[in-house]
Amino acid sequence: MIDEVLAIDQLGFQYGEKQVLSDISLSLNSGKYYALLGPNGAGKSTLFSLICQLLRPVSGSLNLMGKNTQKHTRFALKQLGIVFQQPTLDLDLTVTQNLQYHASLQGMSGALTRQRIEEELARFGLADRAKDKVRALNGGHRRRVEIARALLHKPKLLLLDEATVGLDQNTRDAMNTHLRALCDSEGITILSSTHLIDEVKPNDELIVLLNGQVKLQQRCEEAMKSLGVETVQQLYRQMHMSGGQ
Ligand SMILES: Nc1ncnc2c1ncn2[C@@H]1O[C@H](COP(=O)(O)OP(=O)(O)OP(=O)(O)O)[C@@H](O)[C@H]1O
């Protein structure tokens, strides 16, 4: 079994003249939850776009499951599930139709599609909403559908770009618990960007991006211990003061 799911080596990116990411090197292992923290404009969404190949790196390389993403595009896209910051469900289609559309883009057979939709909707407590139009769902349920959709083809790496924004506290808590359980039960790796520091748990792997550079990659609990702080808030504030904006 390959333990390293994503390897990023000396990645650099710029929009025109503007350098946005510099010398990013990261290693993400299977079954772990990585919380990506960084202020507005730090480059989190750009990093996600590079991983899912909406953008091409200016320098450096990305390997997914041991294969270079630019040389093995289709393979790489099959390893990824993505939930973008902006909702992307079709509100006028049913939950099942939205999922079927994704499955057909992934080239999944009809039988497999039916089976996987049933499994994922059950897992997310949405089995009884399968035939409802997405428009009829509340924000928390819509997000769950988006995550179920991203998992349909059993990706190795799930990218969540501020996936809990706009959800109430209870829904966020439930989703966060659920996502970490996915890492344990399915061995899936999650890279999740957030501004909500209270969502980062001591057992998470923490990645802090500041000014387009990785300032920290360490298990959260260990990072707090080595910096002598008691909360993730304090840790993040300290990182800012020692190298941020
Ligand atoms: N298409 C673009 N063209 C030019 N500059 C861009 C473009 N997209 C983003 N940028 C700039 O690149 C930098 C990084 O943006 P990015 O959206 O990756 O940051 P972020 O960490 O995701 O921020 P946020 O938390 O606000 O979503 C910012 O300075 C932003 O203004």
Automatic annotation (TrEMBL):
| InterPro entries listed in its UniProt record | AAA+_ATPase (IPR003593), ABC_transporter-like_ATP-bd (IPR003439), ABC_transprt_ATP-bd_su_PQQ (IPR022467), P-loop_NTPase (IPR027417)
Please list every transmembrane segment annotated in the UniProt record, as residue ranges: none
- SUPFAM superfamilies associated with the record: P-loop containing nucleoside triphosphate hydrolases
Keywords, sorted A to Z: ATP-binding, Nucleotide-binding
- What GO molecular function terms would the record report? ATP binding; ATP hydrolysis activity
Give residue ranges for domain ABC transporter: 6-236
Name recorded for this polypeptide: ABC-2 type transport system ATP-binding protein
Q: What is the lineage of its organism?
A: Bacteria, Pseudomonadati, Pseudomonadota, Gammaproteobacteria, Alteromonadales
